[in-house]
Amino acid sequence: METYLSIEGVAKYLGIAEKTVRKWVLNREIPYRKIMKVIRFRVSEIEEWINTGGKFCSVADDEVHEGDLFEQEETEEAQGTKTGDEA
Predict the structure, then answer these.
(1) Which among 44, 40, 34 has a CA at the least distance from the CA of 65?
(2) pTM
(3) Is 42 exposed, middle or buried (0-12, 13-18, 19+ CB in 10 A)?
(4) Domains in the chain, ordered, with CATH?
(5) Does residue 87 surpass a pLDDT of 90?
(6) Which of 10, 34, 44, 87 would bridge 5 by S-S if both were Cys, CB 3.0 to 4.6 A apart?
(7) Can you tell me the distance from the alpha carbon of 63 to that of 18, in angstroms, rounded to the nearest whole number?
(8) Statement: residue 73 has pLDDT above 90
(9) Contact at 8 Å (CB) between 48 and 23?
């Protein structure tokens, strides 16, 4: 079974700031998936991305709608259901 990480999880996994991961997603520099409007990262794809020196072919256009990349997280944050120290 494939393991998926959140933005927070992949930031911790890579030892970088969440803001950096968000920028990479917006610029399609890191492999990710949208599952029910939530951004997730396959560990296997992140490992492959690391092993190829950060080279990545962007996800298919039908999987991404830039206008709502972070819509789910912003909605959770506004409703006060978001956990952690993200802002």
Answers:
(1) 34
(2) 0.65
(3) middle
(4) 4-79 (1.10.1660)
(5) no
(6) 10
(7) 22
(8) no
(9) no
